[in-house]
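Please predict the structure of the following assembly.
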Amino acid sequence: MTDDPLLRVRGLWKIFGPKAERWVGSPLSRRELKEQTGCVAAVRDVGFAVRPGEVFVVMGLSGSGKSTLVRCLTRLIEPTAGEIVFDGEDVRRADEKRLRELRRHRLAMVFQHFGLLPHRRVLDNVAFGLEIRGSGKQERYRRAAEVLELVGLAGFENSYPDQLSGGMQQRVGLARALAVDPDLLLFDEPFSALDPLIRREMQNEVIRLHREVGKTMVFITHDLAEALKLGDRVLIMRDGELVQTGTPDEVVGAPADDYVRDFVSDVPRSHVLTLRWVMRDPLPGEPLDGPELGPDEIIRNAVRTVLSADRPVRVVDKDDLLGVVTSAEILEMIAR
Amino acid sequence: MTALTAVAARLPARRYLLGAVLAAWVLGAVLLSGRDTLALGGAELTPLHGRVNEVWDTVDDNRNSNPFFLYFVNYIRLVLDESVTFVQALLSQPSFGRPVPVLGWLGVVAVAGAVTYLFGNLRAALLTVAGFVSFGLLGLWQESMDTLALTLTAVAYSLAVGVPLGIWAGLSDRFLRLVTPVLDFMQTMPTFVYLAPLTLFFLIGPASATIATMIYAIPPAIRITAYGIREVSPVAVEAGTSLGATPRQILRRVRLPLAKRTIVVGVNQTIMAALAMATIAALIDAPGLGKTVLKALQTLDIGSAFNAGLAIVIMAVVLDRATTAAGQRVAGHARRRIEIAALLGAAGVAVYLAYTYVWAAVFPPEADLGPYVRQAADSASVWVQDSLTGFTDALKNAVTYGLLNPLESLLAGSPWWLVALAGVAVAALLGGTRAAAVTVLGMAALVGLGLWQDSMVTLAATLVATALVLALGVVVGVWIGRSDRADAVLRPVLDAGQTMPAFVYLVPILGLFGPTRFTAIIAAVVFAAPVAVKLVAEGIRGVPATTVEAARSAGSSPWQVITKVQLPMARGAVALAANQGLIYVLSMVVVGGLVGAGALGYDVVAGFSQHQLRGKGLAAGLAIVVLGIVLDRVTRAAQARSGSTKEDVWRVER
């Protein structure tokens, strides 16, 4: 991963209501603003950067502004203030035409309620984005069939959306977004409407696709487990504001405030935290010839090695010894 | 004003005040009966009516010299006349130097059947073929085709105007807000009222008939199209936008395809409205079945009226089924090309035969069963009248002497100022200051139009009819609302009642009761009852099942559940039913004028046929509108006061 972000957002505000731009930068809380001006600040001063190839998850409860945020990124909702730079280009400066170009070629979105067209076959739904940008029939059908294969829907080309299950419909939605070969995929709570089993299947599907096609993704969810499972990094929102940005283990291991702490309290920590979070400096005289593990090894995966070793496990990054872990640390962490 | 309302609101018992007003009114009416009633004889005119006549004559004289007419109105008339004539040339009238229309009966039947099959299904196509053949069997082929020609022309223009406007209203909130009150007005206005002013501009004949039909048929086209465009899932639109679709692409590829089914429903409604109006337009000399019915009604020829009425009913059923089938088909897949080709080929052969051979062009006269139908209807009518006299007379007399006469003498037989005063007081008590203000203006307009007494006679009949409609609405509505079986049986009847053109009702009712005021009332009740019944049933069904269950578990009898739970909770729907019932009844006033109702209805009808009564007819039309506006405002205000306004309900029902 390079350090040059694919998408950078700075000071983003979205306020709904009359004369919204006036209240940008207001220190009032969301409720105070609503009471005093009648305006609703959906997104307040949010900033983040998404690196190429990364899965960036925005997590928050309903009403936290996350869906508004993702719509602001492609200006499906016009932001009130702030800067959105996509691949070096200021999205907010783009005129209608340029914005359409961006949407047609570089960004694509998957929606919670799918947004499929019931009067079109699956194949035509998937080809819709290509049709919009003027691709020929043959080419778009070829590409659509290819993508359908990729999402595991080969053979359903001629079905209509209402003949498919919810999970399959969302695969069509996913295929439609992938068909235009975008640089950035936006997911707006894509699996919230699905039942738990299908949801897990679809999450694995996204992980697989991410591995296969390597797209950069911004993923909106209200489900913490989903956020931690999919995200390379997670942004937590509350009442329109950014509370914390970090890798899953940072969020769980070092919550920024009580809100996040409360939120992550139910997460099985050993499933998220890495050895980095439990290692300690070696005590004088401790034997340092135990097994070696990396600092980003998830604790759950390291348990067997640590517990079966008769001496401290060394945590090593390249050739540097960062610390040691013994069964005591592991057991204490799990017991907590 | 508001202070006054506040005082009125604080008065403890509005109902006692209302009772006091009514008592004072009745007392005054008894004491002052027959004075200041502002009566005006059938052939008498006021100066205003005379002036309108003069203006009308001036317009007639300058029709071909005034630039507004020469370069604008006359062109519209020409285009519309020519359009209707063209379709008539295809379907019904000798044309292009031939003694027969271009499409003979076989051609029309084949084309209609093929089109219905292509856009609909086999069942609808067979029904269409059978229906069209029956026009010939009834001996009314040409008249039916004239009606069809007028209807189709008006529908084509209505859709050409209505669908684009509907799309616009679907996309733009501002335009929707702008157009909604106009549509409300177009639909509340009693249908016959705009016929007279139209003839002022476009003369009598197909042009005026087409425009009148369009006024009636465009609102559903606009409304339902707009609704279809609006109800398209916002997610689908957003998905399209997120893929970079232009607004035009969104419209063409997302909104229109998704709204197609709803738009076809709009087409269906437009066609039904157009057919209803196209028959009514016989009053201004529109060609077709309406004219046959009208002539028969005027000569009390029950048999002929029934025969032609039957043809109208068949046409209504065929058009309704065909477009409904088309609506169901929209969602499905396209027909195969070979099927289409075979069908068009067969239709082509039929058209060729009809063009070439007389037997396929002119419906064989020996197959004309019309005389038998007429005879049967006549003897049935005689038999029914003879054998049911006891019952029908009792009903007629009960309503006439029990309700109509007392109310009429109260309204039309007492001094106008007393009635006006009492009316304003009642409006103020029921609906508040604004309703009272509207009533004052309305009363003043009625006096100014010189038709006070006629208006009051019509008002009395209207109120009686509305009361009957409401009674019927509550009884049957509660029944349908509570019983699924009743719903299943009666709903198709109600639907049919609503799609039938108004003329058709008159025939059997006239057969039963002869030409009297009571006949007109019954016709209005039959026309308005389905709406009221449906609204009440909807309200009853809207009562939460848990509430009903709770009442039952507390030991309520069915009667208690109805009177203490369901009806009170459906109060809004009942009030709406009363309002809509009034509007529907009023729109039948002119039809009532044809069968002996007298008063405003007769004035309007006479205005169509007698030159010197045109001004009075126009004034009578306006008086009906005034009555409509006042009654509509007062009932709505009363409903709003009782805290059960549901603006969205209004919208849906229209």
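Residues 370-412 of chain B form the longest helix (43 residues). Residues 644-654 of chain B have pLDDT under 50 and may be disordered.
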